[in-house]
Amino acid sequence: MTTGSALREQLKEHKKSIVYIFRDGCSADVCITPDAFETKCVEQGVTPIIVLDCLTNNALKVTQGKQRYGINWKYYKSRYAPIYVEKFAEDLTSGKYKKIDFLYSKADSSSIQPRP
């Protein structure tokens, strides 16, 4: 279990990294599997970091063997995932978090980049 600020400190150990907040069960076009995320990151020389928005059995299973973290929801004083995930993201970015469009789409899997 980690906080955004603790993970931010750990990210300093990597030259380039991308944090993916994985939501188990998401079937939207923009939701990718941890395997696809990891593959694209490695192809681009980026360290993949997976943060689980909820510690379900399936989320733990599909991320087994990967660099993954759970969010310390107690630190953010909420058991409600949308609240503690948003607080985690704000903490991770030192309050500079903005909701952006997704970094990857199944329809355009050529790269992982912020969308315009």
Number of helices: 4
Uncertain regions spanning at least 5 consecutive residues: 101-116
Characterize the largest beta sheet: strand count, sense, and whether it forms a barrel.
3 strands, parallel
Q: Indicate the percent of residues in helices.
A: 25-40%
What is the overall shape? globular
Spatial gap, N to C terminus? 32 Å
The number of E-state strands comes to 3
Rounded average pLDDT? 82
Per DSSP, what share of the residues sits in E-state strands of 2 or more residues? 5-15%
Question: What is the succession of H and E elements?
Answer: HEHEHEH
| Secondary-structure class | alpha/beta
Q: What is the alpha-carbon Rg in Å?
A: 14 Å
Strand order of the largest sheet: 1-2-3
Task: Describe what you observe in this structure.
It is built from four helices and three strands, in the order αβαβαβα. It is α/β, with parallel strands linked by helices and 116 residues long. The protein has a three-stranded parallel β-sheet. Helix 2 links the parallel strand 1 and strand 2. The longest helix is centred in the C-terminal third of the chain and has 12 residues. The radius of gyration is 14 Å and the shape is globular. The C terminus is likely disordered.
